[in-house]
Amino acid sequence: MLRYLTAGESHGKCLIAVVEGLPAGLKIDTETMNAELVRRQGGYGRGPRMKIEKDEVELLSGTRKGLSIGSPVSLKIRNLDYSIEDLPELTRARPGHADLAGAMKHGFHDMRNVLERASARETAARVAAGALTKTLLKEFNIDVLGYVVGIGGFLATAIPGDPQELQRCRDSSPLYCPDKEAERGMMGRIKEAEKAGDTVGGIIEVAAFGVPPGLGSYAQWTERLDGRLARAVMAVQAIKGVEIGLGFEVAERLGSLVHDEIFYDKIPLSPPLEKGDIGALKGLTSGFYRKTNNAGGLEGGVTNGEPVVLRAAMKPIPTLRKPLSSVELSSKTPVQAAAERSDVCAVPAASVVVEAVVAFELASAFLEKFGGDSLQEVKRNYTGYLGQIKGL
Ligand SMILES: Cc1cc2nc3c(=O)[nH]c(=O)nc-3n(C[C@H](O)[C@H](O)[C@H](O)COP(=O)(O)O)c2cc1C
Questions:
Q1: I need a surface site. Which of 32, 180, 318, 337 has the fewest CB within 10 A?
Q2: Per-residue model confidence as pLDDT tens digits over 56-74
Q3: 47 pLDDT band (50/70/90 cuts)?
Q4: What's the gap in Å between 96 CA and the centre of ligand 1?
Q5: Is residue 342 lining ligand 1, measured as CB closer than 6 Å?
Q6: Is the pLDDT of residue 273 over 50?
């Protein structure tokens, strides 16, 4: 079973991730993880904290000579802004944060005890854990790409269907948005909000290409991959909605305009499976295909061979420079909410986090199906399965 835990406070010594269940023989390099951490810290609209931190992974266990050895991989990201012991008390709860609910839950008078762990700084550890699983998925030609498709009501419409082109467009955008035209409007919204001391949210899309059919299960509700993905994505700070495929739009359309019809072509759509050579595989080899992907690659909680596509709605950042009304915790007098250093828009950063948690969930389902104790064994199992579905 692939799983992970994170630890660490926003202004504590460091963040920690422990990832258990990776097969032995997987390349583990800090460079790949650091590149993802840089992306998480970037994106237009972020606040001053990200200028202080320069996130870098230090591997603590589970690897030798650059490869995983089948034991838990643990890693650390140091906080340059380590100041938790000296920070002032927080007694003016910020609406939209865990401050007040956490204080009532634990009986705290100083809500900093809540803020420090509830903060999205924790997502750096999730991104590092996700990067490990992206490396694993890449071994099987599975690419997971997260990008921004909406900010403050401005929506992207031109999204390339080709993964390479999509990645190229995303990576050349300061908002991680593949649609240049929409990006201009989004930038304008962020600038307006910043001027007004306000914040904006948006929509993130994640597409996973090359996912084989058969991941997840319809046999037990806890194993449905749609549910597992929704949980992982919803558990990212500030995410308030998750849609798979057409999502909420299914409620408005007729059935004939929702369900993806099934076709078959004797000639495989992709290069044929070469004996034992996973590297030669590109996407589908079963011959079954769809002309639409309204289901977002999932039917009955199981992947169907089409790209897995989901969207997440992020709320506007709750800490406002022009603060909202609140109540002082001990005196119960009306006050303005505390205004910590904050982002105006963190949708691009959140797209990196959502991508990471989706990659982790897909890798987890992948290893459940093809799992082995070494990468070689997983590849053997995967190759055998592809042969099986091809001959269906
Ligand atoms: C990448 C990322 C960066 C964030 N940055 C901030 C921030 O600078 N200031 C802030 O108030 N909230 C920020 N948030 C949102 C809060 O962490 C989140 O709204 C809060 O912890 C309450 O959790 P909830 O929105 O899930 O209920 C960020 C979220 C993410 C995913």
A1: 180
A2: 999 999 999 999 999 999 9
A3: confident
A4: 9
A5: yes
A6: no
232 φ, ψ to 5°? -60, -40
User: How far does Cα 310 stand from its chain's mean position?
Assistant: 11
The closest of 231, 383, 213 to 308, measured between CA atoms, is 213
| Superfamily in which the 3-390 domain is placed by CATH | Chorismate synthase AroC (3.60.150.10)
**How much is the average pLDDT of 222-248?**
98
Does residue 37's CB lie within 6 angstroms of at least one atom of ligand 1? no
Q: Which residue has tokens 């008078």?
A: 109
Please work out whether the CB of residue 47 comes within 6 Å of at least one atom of ligand 1. Answer: yes
Angle 346-313-95 (CA atoms, 0-180°, nearest 5)?
65
Instruction: Determine if ligand 1 sits within 6 Å of the CB of residue 199.
Output: no
Mean pLDDT of the chain: 92
Interval 287-299 mean pLDDT = 94
Cβ(176)–Cβ(44) under 8 Å? no
Exposed (0-12), middle (13-18) or buried (19+): which is 378, by Cβ within 10 Å? Answer: buried
Mean pLDDT across the stretch 250-261? 97
- How many angstroms separate the alpha carbon of residue 159 from the centre of ligand 1? 27
Whether 90 is in the pocket of ligand 1, judged by its Cβ within 6 Å, is no
In Å, the largest CA–CA distance within the chain is 74
Q: Where are the domains of the chain?
A: 3-390
